[in-house]
Amino acid sequence: MSRVNIKRLQEMAEVEFADIVMDTMPGFNELRIILTDGSFIDAWFSLKLQKRYSYHWERKVPDGTIYRHDNAPHQRWQEIKTFPKHFHDGDEEQVTESHLPNDPELALRQVLTFARKRLKQIDQR
To answer: Number of folded domains in the chain?
Structure first.
């Protein structure tokens, strides 16, 4: 099983999303990305289960929301067309389809693009 290139993800986040990324903290199988509003995104990749991931945007402090794409096969979400892939849209119980790419770099780019758009919407209020 090959590991995800965390360093490459870190560089991409810092360069391509410098307008919203304040800091990054890499780990062995994860990357924490601190955004300019104080919220953070955790990109996590399982070391035991190949292709298992979670991209979690934690906004509990700014406004109480979370956004998370993951592919843990929770039986309660088995009716979702993209199961086991699913998206927690604002809170743990609001779950929809996830069309996140399987490639970690493309997936993180999509998550950060989503965060950028949401942050711009929030700033316009």
So the answer is: 1
- Chain segment 64-87, per-residue pLDDT in tens: 899 999 999 999 999 999 999 999
Q: Would residue 1 count as lying in a domain?
A: no
Question: How many CB atoms sit inside 10 A of residue 53's CB?
Answer: 22
Domain span holding position 39: 6-120
Quick: pLDDT tens for 26-44: 999 999 999 999 999 999 9
Give the burial class of 35: count Cβ atoms within 10 A of its Cβ; 0-12 exposed, 13-18 middle, 19 or more buried.
Answer: buried
Kindly provide the b/e burial profile for residues 86-111, where b requires at least 16 CB atoms within 10 angstroms of the residue's own CB.
bbbbeeeeebeebebeeebeebbbbb
102: phi then psi, degrees, rounded to nearest 5: -75, -25
103 assigned to some structural domain:
yes
pLDDT-above-70 percentage for the chain: 98
| 3-state per-residue secondary structure call for 71-94 | CCCCHHHCCCCCCCCEEEEECCCC
Position 123 pLDDT exceeds 80: no
